[in-house]
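Quick one: co-fold with guanosine-5'-monophosphate.
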Amino acid sequence: LALEADLRRAIDEKQFILHYQPQLDLLDNRICCVEALIRWQHPRRGLVGPFEFIPMAEETGLIARIGNWVLEESCRQMAEWRARGIDGVRLAVNLSPAQFADPGFPERIANILTRTGLPASCLELEITESIAMASPVETEKVIRRLVSEGVSFSIDDFGTGYSSLSYLRQFPIQTLKIDRSFVKDVDAGNGASDICEISILLAHKLGLDVVGEGVETPEQLDFLRRVGCEKVQGFLVSRPLSAESTEQALGAYR
Ligand code: G
Ligand code: G
Ligand code: MN
Ligand code: NA
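Sure, here it is.
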């Protein structure tokens, strides 16, 4: 397949870049976190989004190398921003199931943190419900090991996967990210607002923070604020930004 060959070459030729999407803390109105989002600068197709190549990277096993690069580069970048005086902002990184299943994963994270000088407390790893449920016993071990080193975890796209409540209780995760499909429909009168509200209540009962994802309108923001959501991410706050623009956005908040 042409795309697969291109993807292999992309790793060697360093065609990937990271954008960062800010997360706003509604309690103090500051950017508290940025989520690293990969893009592929394809020599002919231009900027290609992750939906177009992450699935293939997962099928072909290339995700391991790509995922390692994302972790290394985003941690390096955040450490650099911190060295330039940007403080109090954490980094969130998306993980694929195969990365998480690699027995060397916790060690790799520890090494990356050492190499880049990024404090573990600045790193948040986003896992999906399918990672959480793939092999719960192993997953819990890996999460506990990394949490003991200071790394934190969030559940991404909450409500769209298996949504087992047992892992929410069992795993030491810190944050629940409500999927944007629910946030999008909070004014549609089709139950989405109830799901958001109940998810926030559940999270808080369990001692978790909540991020509302995909917030695009002031009405959606008002709703989330009203029902106690403490953090939001979405185009209303900011689109994903280049590294350069992210640095400016973070600097402006100092
Ligand atoms: O960046 P965009 O908003 O188009 O992201 C689309 C999807 O790709 C999201 O589900 C996001 O979690 C995923 N994604 C973005 N960057 C990465 C990455 O570095 N690794 C993995 N595994 N998924 C990513
Ligand atoms: O699955 P994950 O939450 O990692 O997905 C992040 C993806 O969501 C990225 O592709 C990002 O570009 C996209 N995204 C972020 N904010 C918004 C938004 O407000 N609206 C829409 N439609 N997509 C968004
Ligand atoms: Mn995410
Ligand atoms: Na999500």
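If it helps, Residues 2-252 form a domain with the TIM Barrel fold (CATH 3.20.20.450).
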